[in-house]
Structure formats: C-alpha cells, structure tokens
Amino acid sequence: MRIVDIREKTFPIASAIRNAYIDFSTMTCSLVAVVTDVVRDGRRVVGYGFNSNGRYSPGALLHDRFLPRLRDAAPETLITDDGNNLDPFKIWRTLMTNEKPGGHGERSVAVGVVDMAVWDAVAKIEGKPLWRLLADRYRGGEADDRVFVYAAGGYYYPGKDDEKLKDEMRSYRDRGYRVVKMKIGGAPLPEDLRRIEAVLSVVGDGANLAVDVNGRFDLETAIAYAKALEPYGLFWYEEIGDPLDFGLQAAMAQVYKHPMATGENLFSMQDARNLIRHGGMRPDRDWLQFDCALSYGLVEYLRTLAMLKDHGWSWRRCVPHGGHQLSLNIAAGLGLGGNESYPDLFKPFGGFADGYAVEDSWVRLPDTPGIGFEAKADVLTVMRELAE
Ligand SMILES: O=C([O-])CC(=O)C(=O)O
Ligand SMILES: [Mg+2]
C-alpha cells in the first residue's frame, strides 16, 4: 500500500470571542487529507487531520517543508514492515528529517495535523475505531466506554452581559454538561468575580466551574486572584501565568490548595517534562492539558505519556485541550481523565459524533472506523470536498 496524495486547505474559524490574551477575529485552521490506495467497504481510504484552535493554520509550513518530505520519501519507508498499513512512527521520523531539537515553535502544529490524518487512515485500514486500536495496542484491549467532557466557553464578547453569560452556561447544562469553563483575567478582578458568581448561580457548586486565564497573570495578580477564588472551591484554575514560567506555576502550588491545570501551550515531550520537573504540579489534584493536535501528534503524545508514567503520574490526570475527536479517542483507548469540549465554537472541526448525547458530563464514542469523522456530518462534508 502507499500514500497516493496529500492535500491541505486552510479554513477560517474566526469569531468575535476574546480570552484574556487574544481575540479570534482572524483564527484559521488547517485540514489535511492523506489519500491512500487502500479500499475498504468500497471506498478509497483517506485519513483526515486538523489543528485545534489557538494556533493559526500551519499551511505555509506544510507546503514549504513537511509535505514535500513525505512526497519525496520512498513509499516503502512510510509503511509497516509487513507492508499492510502506514507506520505513524516512520512517517513522523520522515517529517522531522533535518529538524533540530528544541525551539519547537509551530512546526509541532504542522506535524500534528499530518499525524492526526495518518492515525485516522491507520485505524480505517484496520477497520477499527481508533480508541479500540489504541486499547488493543497499548492497554491489553481494555477501553473506557465513556469519557468525561466539560463544556468550554464563557468568553468575553462584545455586548455580552451577565445574563447572556448565564444563558450560555444554562444551555451547556441543558445539553448534558455538568462541568463548564469560563474565561477570566480579561477584566478587572471585581468584574471577573461578578461574572463567576453569575455562572455559579446557574451551575451551583464551584466544583462544576473551571476558570481559564490563558497565561495572562504575573505572580502578584495570580496570587490576588487565588485568594479571591479560594472560597469557591473551583474545578480548576487554568494556565495562570506564562506557559513557560514554571517558577510561577510552582509558586502557585504553595498558595493555592485547589486544583490547577496547564499545558495546552507546551508543544513537545521535553517541554511537558520541564513542567513536571520544575512546575510544582501536584499529581494528587492538578490537571495536564497537553494537546496532541498542537504538539507533534499522537506519536509525540505517546512519548509524553511514557514520561508521565516514569515520573509517577497517572494518565487519569490528563484532560487535553482542544475539544477534538483525536483526544477523545486517546482518552477512551488509553484511559485519560477526560477531554475538553466546545459545544458552540470552532465549527465544524470541534465537537463529537452526531447523536451521542452528553449525560452528566460523560460521552460515548461511535464504532465508526478511524477517528470517527464519518459519524459527524458537518466536518465530513468539508473533508470529502477536499479529497473524495
Ligand atoms: O481560548 C483559548 O485559547 C482556548 C483555551 O484556552 C482552552 O480551550 O482552554
Ligand atoms: Mg485554556
């Protein structure tokens, strides 16, 4: 078997939302199709991948550097020894030819998009959902039959008052999410506390609400917020300072006793390892949000999981950023703690299979071969337009 074509297209996923650091007025997303010569159920197997929000489309990097490496490689160097399937690890090595270590930048997004498409194709060729393939390969066949998900939203938005924020959260609760997340740090502390209390009037207990700073605070502001947030007993306090400021993160562990979360902007196993070594993260309560779609894909995420195991961390502490189905498959297949969900944002790329309702913040996965895009009509439409 071989790869016969690789296509990429950049799509806008712009919206008027704003977090404490950026707005999404020009946000884009890259969709990649890896077309193979394998036929299953009368169709040519095509694997699809895309990057999650927060980083722009890596289309230029893909066209300049990464896709030519795959096109120029001898086809037999990209497949398994028995010749029956693509080998995600060999493809990863080819993509990363002549790339120095460190300084990961956004090439990790480009490699992540291709890696997602490769795993989708690999599972389709094996005729299995990816969560099943991962459970069979790495967990002795054991898979979780449902995954914890929380609804992310609560952005700043022109003209959005507390009533609109409450309506948004009520609609997530009506759609089966127990836990919701909102943005903070983009307004003065008293205003954010008023917004938090508005949301708590809808979701009740603080254990049903996570807050996300998107890396905005210096230590002094982080501590002022920590003191104000402490009484609410929130689900988590996320990405409080700069993602690479492990000293700030470690200092916060001394002053904030409730759970914290971070990691969505760490793009390699080595960066994740530095967080674990130097960030003071507490394996009994804190959460790790590394997102494979932004950070060299599942091949690299497996290295990150191995690193966590070596450091005595349970994979149940991982709840990836991004709200995409690749992380949902990894969560079910490898036994993570859950996955993010954006019920209303970043369409059609975010979101899970049609017709699988969320209940009390748990969702089930379809049996569709691959990542499950064939079970989600809106994303499948744009995918098939690209390559089928
Ligand atoms: O607003 C964003 O960039 C998304 C984000 O942090 C999250 O989903 O946790
Ligand atoms: Mg975040």
UniProtKB/TrEMBL annotation:
InterPro entries: D-tartrate_dehydratase (IPR034611), DgoD-like (IPR034593), Enolase-like_C_sf (IPR036849), Enolase-like_N (IPR029017), Enolase_C-like (IPR029065), Mandelate_racemase_C (IPR013342). Binds 1 Mg(2+) ion per subunit. It holds the Pfam family MR_MLE_C. This is D(-)-tartrate dehydratase. Mg(2+) binds at D212, E238, E264. The active site is at K183 (acceptor), H321 (proton donor/acceptor). The record marks N53, K181, E340 as: Transition state stabilizer. Residues 162-259 form the Mandelate racemase/muconate lactonizing enzyme C-terminal domain. One of its GO terms (molecular function) is D(-)-tartrate dehydratase activity. Substrate binds at N19, N53, K100, Y155, K181, E238, E264, H321. The lineage of its organism: Bacteria, Pseudomonadati, Pseudomonadota, Alphaproteobacteria, Hyphomicrobiales. The record marks D291 as: Increases basicity of active site His. Keywords: Magnesium, Metal-binding. It comes from Rhodoplanes serenus. Its cofactor is Mg(2+).
